[in-house]
């Protein structure tokens, strides 16, 4: 038994499913998860000493690779000053200034401890501001595990939500409307069927959580116009895309400015952080400025803000990071597409900036229904074949890969070599 297997056996006795977040359990691809020991640059090392090139990067935050000196130094510098005060600090102000400078939609911002907290808080504020109860989300978009977001797609655009998880009440679910991503007619129909009832429309402007799905040309602009027309707060959930697709996130890349934005992951450089913000008149509703309550003992934590500031400042001062990520990711994604084609598979590869997915289907993937056409058993075999060759991918077809600046040309070649062999093995 390997050390990983041993730890997983122990973990299953102690922790539900043996993991502290479900996707880590490898349920979608079979097998047992690998327990990690350390990481540096592009490489993860597991508890048995095996090494893997990392294409998850903690699900996004490690955009500069693992343990970058600039972030570690900032944390080291902050460490002797203690770990938490429960009182305001200078760095919270500086981080707010930087976030507001970089992200077009932010006029005011509040720090929290996770992406989930950010989205839960943001919809409360939107509801408080508009005095409306309903929210609308898109099928296949993930916004954390808040009750309001765990709602099944339902049978059509106008169907009221049904809970996706036991423990989410019908009462909560009925206030969440869902429509397919990239579907303007369905969106218009849902708005028309719920006049002056929708507080906010929340969207991943580029979806990472059904695999990588890009907004159709003009979709975000149309969404913006509809929200303005109907007094609905447009909320971009940029927990994955923020500071990754561009210094100002997807909203900068596509030139569409939402009313509110949620952030996470990258802004903590690997430590637990989230943030939500937007127009000042909306954010002024948040306590203690306004009546919408939201709080957090560890919010603005000194180590998390140190790590986040260091990483964001680096991104701010080194725009060449995005040029490098674009070139590396294009090389990876184009190479993957070509290999699939050479093997007669014609699989779909979607990419925006440093996020991409290989879908095990030859049809275009523009929404959740399309993504579900993928050959999941073949993906599972591919995943394990890649892992065996030292390539660490997300253990699900419905996740994107995240590229870091630590991926060199040599590692791109390693990935592409493994990709060819693994696709063959998966279809052998
Ligand atoms: N929103 C999006 C778009 C996400 O991808 C995630 C997590 O992956 C979340 C929200 C929730 O963030 P967290 O896991 O930090 O609670």
Automatic annotation (TrEMBL):
TM stretches of this protein: none
GO terms, molecular function: glutamate-1-semialdehyde 2,1-aminomutase activity
InterPro entries referenced in this protein's UniProt entry, alphabetically: 4pyrrol_synth_GluAld_NH2Trfase (IPR004639), Aminotrans_3 (IPR005814), Aminotrans_3_PPA_site (IPR049704), PyrdxlP-dep_Trfase (IPR015424), PyrdxlP-dep_Trfase_major (IPR015421), PyrdxlP-dep_Trfase_small (IPR015422)
E.C. number: 5.4.3.8
Top-level enzyme category: isomerase
Principal subcellular localization: cytoplasm
Pathway(s) where this gene product acts: Porphyrin-containing compound metabolism; protoporphyrin-IX biosynthesis; 5-aminolevulinate from L-glutamyl-tRNA(Glu): step 2/2
Record text on subunit structure and interactions: Homodimer.
Descriptive protein name: Glutamate-1-semialdehyde 2,1-aminomutase
Organism: Hymenobacter bucti
Gene coding for it: hemL
């Amino acid at each position: 038994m390997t050390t990983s297997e041993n730890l997983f056996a122990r973990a299953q006795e102690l922790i539900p499913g043996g993991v502290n977040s479900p996707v880590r359990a490898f349920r979608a691809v079979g097998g047992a998860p690998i327990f990690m020991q350390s990481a540096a640059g592009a490489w993860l090392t597991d508890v048995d000493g095996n090494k893997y090139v990392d294409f998850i990067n903690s699900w996004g935050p490690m955009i500069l690779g693992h343990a970058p000196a600039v972030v570690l130094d900032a944390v080291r510098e902050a460490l002797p000053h203690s770990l938490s005060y429960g009182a305001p600090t200078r760095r919270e102000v500086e981080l707010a200034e930087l976030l507001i400078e970089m992200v077009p939609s932010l006029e005011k911002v509040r720090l929290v401890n996770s992406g989930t907290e950010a989205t839960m808080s943001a919809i409360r504020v939107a509801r408080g501001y508009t005095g409306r109860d309903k929210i609308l989300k898109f099928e296949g978009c993930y916004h954390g595990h808040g009750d309001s977001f765990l709602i099944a797609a339902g049978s059509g655009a106008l169907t009221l939500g049904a809970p996706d998880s036991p423990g989410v009440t019908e009462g909560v679910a009925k206030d969440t409307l869902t429509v397919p991503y990239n579907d303007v007619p369905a969106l218009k129909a849902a708005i028309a069927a719920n006049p002056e009832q929708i507080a906010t429309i929340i969207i991943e402007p580029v979806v990472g959580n059904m695999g990588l799905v890009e907004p159709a040309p003009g979709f975000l602009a149309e969404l913006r116009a509809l929200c303005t027309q109907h007094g609905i707060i447009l909320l971009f959930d940029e927990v994955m895309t923020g500071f990754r697709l561009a210094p100002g996130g997807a909203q900068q890349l596509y030139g569409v400015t939402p009313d509110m934005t949620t952030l996470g992951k990258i802004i903590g450089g690997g430590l637990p952080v989230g943030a939500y913000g937007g127009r000042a008149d909306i954010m002024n509703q948040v306590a203690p400025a306004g009546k919408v309550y939201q709080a957090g003992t560890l919010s603005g934590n000194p180590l998390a803000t140190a790590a986040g500031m260091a990483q964001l400042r680096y991104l701010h001062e080194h725009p060449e990071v995005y040029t490098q990520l674009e070139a590396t990711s294009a090389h990876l994604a184009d190479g993957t597409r070509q290999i699939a084609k050479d093997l007669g598979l014609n699989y779909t590869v979607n990419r925006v900036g440093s996020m991409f997915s290989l879908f095990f289907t030859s049809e275009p993937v523009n929404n959740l229904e399309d993504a579900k056409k993928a050959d999941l058993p073949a993906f599972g075999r591919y995943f394990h074949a890649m892992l065996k060759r030292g390539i660490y991918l997300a253990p699900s077809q419905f996740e994107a890969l995240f590229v870091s600046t630590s991926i060199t040309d040599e590692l791109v070649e390693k990935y592409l070599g493994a990709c060819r062999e693994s696709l063959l093995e998966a279809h052998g």
